[in-house]
Amino acid sequence: MSEAVRQMFAGIADQYDRANSVLSFGLHYQWRRRAVAYSGVQRGAQVLDLCTGTADLALAFFRQVGAEGRVVATDFCDAILRLGVQKAHKKAAPLTFVLADAQALPFPDASFDCVSVAFGLRNVDSLATALCELYRVLRPGGVALVVEFGQPQSRWFGLVYRAYSRYVMPNVGGWLSGNRDAYAYLPRTAAAFPAGERFCREMRLQAFVDAEAQPLHGGIVYLYRAKRV
Predict the structure, then answer these.
(1) What are the residues whose beta carbons fall under 8 Å from the beta carbon of 132, sequence distance 6 or more?
(2) DSSP conformational letter for 99
(3) Angle between the 78-90 and 16-23 helix axes, to the nearest 10 degrees?
(4) Is the dihedral of CA 57, 63, 65, 67 positive or negative?
């Protein structure tokens, strides 16, 4: 991922959680809970969470897999990863943290039962490369779980959401974080991401099978699930 994107996330790291809660009206906690349930992972599973940020999804997976399992959380931005380490320590959750780019993972082939990534794939330089890496580190039969913004399916709701993304998010996010440009960048990348069936096709191109998409809240967010053969 580019150095500019890394610096952007480093610059908003201290207000990242607060801004997420305000701008999503607290719904991001629900999205992550539903993502873990949708993945179907069981207790004792080995999970890798990419682009973990402050580790909210990794912690949700840890609650599911329990002490018998293992959750490894990675991010390419050291400043935001340190906040995840602190959060896990406060919650006494023994996650393993690794500084790593989703496009060049430092793990052997077929290492994990589940690989997840929430709101991160739209920031990579090469979506195909990241999906290839995700596939590589999954065990045969393992599950890929992706959470990403989409575009609402309803015409009128879509108009409202696009106005919110274009005007409200940059201004409120900028006020909370001191970096308006970051919260203008994030909606742009979300709007450009290949949502729904288009992303399922991207997964199939990298050899995933059983790729499917589940829209939440009218398509603001999608959950994606696919398997390695």
Answers:
(1) 206
(2) E
(3) 80
(4) positive
Distance CA 129, CA 4 (A): 19
* Tens digits of pLDDT across the chain (229 residues): 578 888 888 889 899 899 989 989 899 999 999 999 999 999 999 999 999 999 999 999 999 999 999 999 999 999 999 999 999 999 999 999 999 999 999 999 999 999 999 999 999 999 999 999 999 999 999 999 999 999 887 888 889 988 999 899 999 998 989 899 988 888 889 889 999 999 999 999 999 999 999 999 999 999 999 999 9
Instruction: Give the integer Cα–Cα distance in Å for 128 and 207.
Output: 11
Residue 109 is given by DSSP the state T
CB 11 within 8 A of CB 182: yes
Give 135-177 as a 3 state SS string. Answer: HHHEEEEEEEEEEEECCCCCHHHHHHHHHHHHHHHHHHHHHHH
Q: How far apart are CA 219 and CA 229, in angstroms?
A: 28
Domains of the chain by range and CATH? 3-227 (3.40.50.150)
Strand segments (E) across the chain: 46-50, 70-75, 96-99, 112-118, 138-149, 209-216, 221-227
- Amino acid sitting at position 212: E
N- to C-terminal Cα separation, the chain: 28
